[in-house]
Structures are given as structure tokens and as C-alpha cells.
Amino acid sequence: MYEGKCKNLHGHTYQLHITISGFLNEIGMAVDFGEIKDIFQSVIKSRLDHKYLNDVLPSMNTTAENMIVWIWEQIEEEMVKRGLTEAGHRLETLTLFETPTSSATLHREWMIDE
Fold first, then answer.
1. Is 107 labeled as catalytic in the residue annotation?
2. Could you say which of 21, 66, 72, 114 is the most buried, measured as most Cβ atoms within 10 Å of its Cβ?
3. Would residue 50 show up in a list of annotated catalytic residues for this protein?
4. Three-class SS of residue 40?
5. Which residues form the signal peptide (predicted)?
6. What are 38's strand-pairing partners?
7. Is the CB of residue 30 less than 8 Å from the CB of residue 91?
8. Per the annotation, where are the binding residues for Zn(2+)?
9. HSE on the CB side for 68, CA within 13 Å?
10. Mean pLDDT of the chain
11. DSSP label at 110?
């Protein structure tokens, strides 16, 4: 159990930066920003926005570090469902800002089991 300054119930205004790589299509686009936004809205924002995170996330300490791994897994799963992974697109980096000056970053190579 975390015993620091943020141990009591409180809120944050999170911001998520998503980096996806992929091959360009015939008009010079990898993944339409609208589709990335839709993925975020449907699998992340709809489940977490204005929610008590301990009630909606799996049983975990809701640190930015734990949350970003969960978010990565949800986005990757949705990319597979939409055929983006099969088309050669990859989630490369996520950065979750808990405050304007505090963030956690996750890179693809850290999520690959060897």
C-alpha cells in the first residue's frame, strides 16, 4: 500500500500521448488521426473519464506506471480488432501525464516478451 502524499482519494486531469507507426497508404497516410481518436475514446476515455479508477480498472495500485501498461494492452487489442496490426501498424510509445509536469512513458520494446 502506497503511503505517500497521494494516498488519499484525489483526482487528476490526465493527458495521453499516443504514437503509432505504420506504412503509408496511397494518399500518404498511415493511420487517420480520427481513427486513433476513436480508439482512444471508445476503449480508454469511455471507461475511465469521470470514474473512480479503483472501481473500473483491474485490481492494481492506480499509479501512472500501472495504468499506462493497462492502457497499452487495451489500445493494442483494439488495433488488432480493427485490422491495423495486420496492416503493419504498431503502437510505439504512450506517455500518460498525471499532471502537466509528471508523466510515465512506455515504449514498444519494453512490452515485448523475449
1. no
2. 72
3. yes
4. helix
5. none
6. none
7. no
8. 10, 12
9. 24
10. 89
11. G
pTM, whole model, 2 decimals? 0.85
pLDDT in tens, 11-58: 678 899 999 999 999 999 999 999 999 999 999 999 998 888 888 899
Q: Which residues are CB-neighbours of 97 under 8 A, at least 6 positions away? A: 14, 15, 16, 17, 103
**70 in Cβ contact with 11 (< 8 Å):** no
Which entry of 6, 17, 65, 77 is annotated as an active-site residue? Answer: 6
**34 contacts: CB under 8 Å, gap ≥ 6:** none
| pLDDT higher than threshold 90 for residue 62 | no
Establish whether 98 is a catalytic residue: yes
The grid coordinates listed for 98 are 498525471
Boundaries of every domain in the chain: 15-111
Phi, psi (deg, nearest 5) at residue 23: -80, 145
Catalytic residue among 50, 86, 109, 114: 50
Residues 6+ apart with CB under 8 A from 79: 20, 39, 85, 89, 91
